[in-house]
Amino acid sequence: MKKHHPFKVKFTLMLVVIFTLSLIAFSQRASSNINVPDIKVIVSQNSIKAGVNEEFTINYHFEPQPIPMELISPQTDKEIVLVIDTSGSMKDPIGKNDSTIRMNALKSAANNFIDKFSEIDNVKVGIVTYSTQSKIETTKYSKNGMVSSKEKNNLKAIIKGMTPDGGTNIGDGLRTGSSLFSTNPSTKKYLVFMSDGEPTALTYTGDGGYYYYDWWGDLRYQVVESTNFAGRRTKEYMWGKDNTENKRWNYYYNIYENDYDIKYGVYGGTSEPADKGFALKYAKIMARNVKDMGIKNFVIGFSEGASEKKLMDITNAANGLYYGATDANAINEVYSQIADQIKADFATEDVKINFNLPEGIEYAGSMKNIDVNGTSFAQRIPDIKYKLNKEAKRYEADPFDISITLKATKSGVYDLSNEGWNISYKGVNSNIINKIFPSVNIDISKYNMTFIMNRNIVENNNKINLYKDFQMEYKITPNPIKPSDSFVSKPKEVVLVLDASKSMLEGFNGEEKTSVLKETAKAVIDRFNGNTNVKVALVSYNSGAIVKDFGKSQYLISSNNKDQIKNAIENLTIGEGSNTGDAIRKALWVLANNNDADKHIVVIGDDKTDYYTHEKDQPNNLYTELNNEALGTKAQYAPSTVPNEDNKILSEEYARIMAGAIVNQNYRISSYFITLGEKGDNNLFSELASKTNGMYIDHRRTNKLDFQNSMLDIADEVRAQFVIKNPKLIETLPEGITSSQGANKMEIVLPSLVYIYNNATKQYESKGITATLDLKGNKIGTYNLVEDAAINYTDIEKINRSLTFHPLQLSIVDEYILKQGLFTNKATSFGTLGENYLLNDSNEVSEIAEDFTAKVGTYVRTSGQPTRVKIIINKDQNSNIQNINMDSIRLFKVTEKNELEEIKDFNFTNDKVLDNYREITVSLPPGDTSKYNHFIINYNFSTTNKGVEGGNINCSAVIEEVNRSNDFILKSVMLPDVF
């Protein structure tokens, strides 16, 4: 057996360990660089509002973060190929606004491009020109076309010698241009391609393409793109007018050599048949070849005649970047920008802005450099250029901005935030990094309904004392809506259902309910005056219901017939019983005809229902057919006030069934149930409103004015073009702030927003809403209220929306100061305002007798809020102290001049809890909340010490609002016994 030398074994093991540690270190370093470079993404608006088919723009700001110098590998060699269009059209002027010859402007721009690399060592440049066919431009220093960028004179000589002529074989230019690059994988390769038009020629091989001259002397070529030689395919793919040849042919792909039978096909004269797209297809084939070779490429469309769409198609096939230039300055600037990208010390490559559009959102921006895959879009943007900062030892890049223009085809709320919204790019480890964009909320409305939303703390500078109640006020002001073609003013139909039972003769704030009802109903009709699209029906009910016939079986008539309607209201007939169910049944019959109208049923009564309608001679079979049947061959009315054998009161059950029919129609009906009176505890109307998803308003214990205002509000809802029903204010408070009742989350149902057409301003307007919440702070701190408060509502397009209030900062503070000492009515020279009325440098009181008197002062500083101060004398209940007697309690306000103003009228309590224990409570009045307020409470008392050393009295003051306390110890020092 062969033995291994010990040294060799140890050395081998050492190498293994070193190699393993190196791999671990490399792996850790590579892992730590996985997200380098980082890019900070900022969106200018997190919320955008727009109308349907209205374009809007999302603006993103990108801040590339610095890269440590040690993470970047040294610069590699670079190869650049300029592919330049020398077709005949390059002899023409650039365009209408620039008479410069295209070739002259191009030569100037190309020369400036060459100058940018003339001092760089590791760059090679080649030039390819193309017209009908392409050509590698060579110099005596390089037969293969690639020379050092420092050879700028030779390169410029090539540029100077270019002359325009022939067609535009873009595909061949790309084919030959891509052939110049080396096969070295570590070399960076860049192809800069320029064209002033569109592809009109192609390169092919095979037997097709024989030329001939037509009668007009124009040169023609025929190409048959098919492996099927059937004659019927020939004319479809023919360039010339006649079927002169019918042979197979192929696009020529080979980039490294030219076959002996290579041909160049060019379109002929003005009578040429329609372009079949062969030249464009060939160009895209060769563009994809550039992409497959991994060549970074730039395509420049030059002049006003350039076919931007076709050139962008070619750019997309090459996965390149497209630039447009329509004048001499622009072509120079484009070449300069591309040169700067290539020259960068380091560049983040393959940068794309990715976004995925939901249904209803469309892309409305430029399609330049955009790849589309269904609803997913990727915008290719230039590499991010980094410059080496040698002092900081890092690579730095300038920030940049990108905008995405979209539009919505339908209303809705769209959240544009997910992994499909990101910027992707190649990291320093060649891995692809995806940086997700911040969320953007898009609110689209056909009617452009917007609001001004404000909130503030009432009568406060946003500094609130701890435990002090304060009010937050919320204001929602709807902006006017201007009419547009998208507005469709629907007809309105409203049935007023009025209680005509004898109970309506009862009193309501000194008037008969019937009188109040009639007056208010007529005011509602007046409110409708001028609204030509509103029709009104009138149903009155007692034991049964009657639909008012306004003549010739007209039950719904225009509200402009106000006198006729008001006269019918005035002549209501009072009768026995109350059949609410029959009133609803006949109201539904009235509304059953026009399904395109906005429909409303408004029921007003005293909530007493004691009659129902049944089939004739069948009292247990409720009559529910929607017709105008009254007492007759089909229906009868009957009283019902006690439960039957099924424990149901039929009159109430009948009302419930007919109310249920409101929501079972194939059209929507808005319902309102309003009770009127001074007494009664029935809840049937409330139940009916809930059953119909309607509104219930209780006016049994209110007043006439409140009732009339409620009815006029309903009238406004009926006649309105737009109504946002009962939006909700949602407030979610952070920890440390609660409602006055201690809740952190509150929900308030707000009045409806009703938009009425204003004839003067020619727009729809709605009154604003103001709501307040009573809050208090329970914890000291500064609170930034952001997205804590919102209005939730369903808009007129039945879309659920939520709008947040602007951020608000408030501080919960404890600005009280509480101090005690012996009181003097003459300020000392030390201490601050108010405090210098206290002698608190010594708390010893010496008396030669057992009895002594103390004059104590309590200084309190407030922020103007009402404050209660409790003072406890002998808090520790020292038993050596006996018989505390109060001499006086006085309250002073300290002025800004440090003078005492006695407050004669103030609230206080003086409780003798025990002989040696007193409690005083003083209420400090409110003051100016914009500044501090200073008070002195002076309390004077006498007491008896048993004569024992250490007869201390603890005078404790407490501010009850914040539970802040201060103890002041009075110490009685006994004189020594000298007898």
Give the helix/strand layout:
Elements: H1 6-32, E1 39-43, E2 47-51, E3 55-64, E4 67-68, E5 78-85, E6 93-95, E7 98-101, H2 102-115, E8 123-130, E9 134-137, E10 146-148, H3 152-160, H4 170-179, E11 188-195, E12 201-206, E13 211-213, E14 219-221, H5 231-234, E15 249-251, E16 263-266, H6 278-292, E17 296-302, H7 308-318, E18 321-325, H8 328-343, E19 346-348, E20 352-356, E21 361-363, E22 370-373, E23 376-380, E24 384-389, E25 394-397, E26 400-408, E27 412-416, E28 422-426, E29 432-436, E30 440-445, E31 451-457, E32 463-465, E33 469-478, E34 492-499, E35 507-508, E36 511-512, H9 513-528, E37 534-541, E38 545-547, E39 557-558, H10 562-570, H11 580-590, E40 598-605, E41 611-615, E42 618-622, E43 635-639, H12 650-663, E44 669-676, H13 684-691, E45 695-699, H14 704-719, E46 722-724, E47 728-732, E48 737-739, E49 745-749, E50 753-758, E51 763-765, E52 769-777, E53 781-785, E54 789-794, E55 800-804, E56 808-813, E57 817-823, E58 838-839, E59 844-846, E60 851-862, E61 867-873, E62 881-894, E63 900-903, E64 907-914, E65 917-924, E66 933-945, ...
Parallel strand pairs: 2-30, 5-8, 5-11, 11-17, 17-18, 32-56, 34-37, 34-40, 40-44, 44-45, 59-68
Antiparallel strand pairs: 1-3, 3-26, 4-25, 6-7, 8-9, 8-10, 12-15, 12-16, 13-14, 19-24, 20-23, 20-28, 21-26, 22-23, 24-25, 27-30, 28-29, 31-33, 33-52, 35-36, 37-38, 37-39, 41-42, 41-43, 46-50, 47-49, 47-54, 48-52, 50-51, 53-56, 54-55, 57-58, 57-60, 60-66, 61-65, 61-67, 62-63, 62-66, 64-65, 67-68
